[in-house]
Records
---
Amino acid sequence: MAKIVASTDKLKELLKSTKIADRNKAVKIIQENKIAELGDDLFNLLNKEYEKGKSWQLIVACMNTLGDINYAKSKDFLYEICRKNLAHDMITASASTAYSRIVKNKKNDVKPVLHLLSFGNFAVVNGALKSLAIDKVIPNDKEKIEIINVVNSFTPKKEDGYADVRVGLAVACAGWLGLPEVDGFLSKSLEESDYQPLTKATEMAIKGKYYSI
């Protein structure tokens, strides 16, 4: 765990600072130390930054941190962004990841992910699958196959200048080995793609190791 370099009162001040560097610093400290007690303050900042719409990096950092601290009060806000379903948008992808992590009832619950996959464009799908990798989620075999089938049928899987939606799933598959569908997905991804993060994630997953996403 990272060393806390400021008191919670000081962090609250930084979150309200007019200087974006201060706000970024506070969010980083909260994320590194998973300071859940500052969830309300962080969520207030997210709302303000999202309304201004100027700093997508800070917005994404806020969302990622809310996911890390499992801040349940943000789920409706995050879901509304997912429903807007912008196809190529980092904020949307981050909202999808955080929502999937926050809403699940237990570590291996993939119902939120399956729901997002049922309607999502590229960013929503990419974010939902990333949540599986971050939390090393291991669903039941039926759910594994369902997720793989959705991803196999999703097009396009790779967008130039953005990402490949299969990366998150490939990482998660490190804990899914043994099913023919899982092995087939990994083999096919390795054959089809020259996208380095996907090939690296796939190569490691085949060995049962998690790629850092």
---
Amino acid sequence: LDTTGTLTQKYQAAIIPGNAPAELITREDTSNIRSLTGKSKVPADCLPTDHPVAGGILPVSILFERLAPLVGANIADAGRDQERNRGGAVHQLVCSALGYKRYADDGRFPDVRNQLLEIKLQTARTIDLGLVRPDSTEPLDTPMLNGRQLRHCDVRYGIFFGTTDGRRVRITHFYLTTGEAFFNRFRRFEGKVLNKKLQIPLPGGFL
């Protein structure tokens, strides 16, 4: 067994579903990217994994209009230990709803890089946020647009919350927010804030 003592760490927040099935947490994008938005359609012949381009980023309000109708949709439940596969199914629905001609996923942050959109499917109330807080002003690894450096807090977060019977996940709620406004709606885990855990990988054939 690996006894290096390496800690995995991630920020976490909690969902408290409200009465509304779809909530737009903030009606405007961050001031940093507001001038880079404006179109109502995704750029022609681009992929979801492409870098965003000036003028080709949909405003957060348009994203909400396109994605809110996904509430009520059902996807196959690959199991709690298959979160990436479950998330991939929602990712495909999102790309189709936004008008992309082809689906693509390269595993990088944010999921729909072309639209600065991170997607999360939740069947539990704890949201795993990774190593960077949504409201962080750290720069993204994307080219500058019109002299502006994109930041983590500029990313839009689409949170799909649903219930599962073990076979299908039914989306019951949808939330859309900028990273900057993320903690205006979702409760940040306090205490240590950055949760850490020790993981021990099992060798092949252990079971």
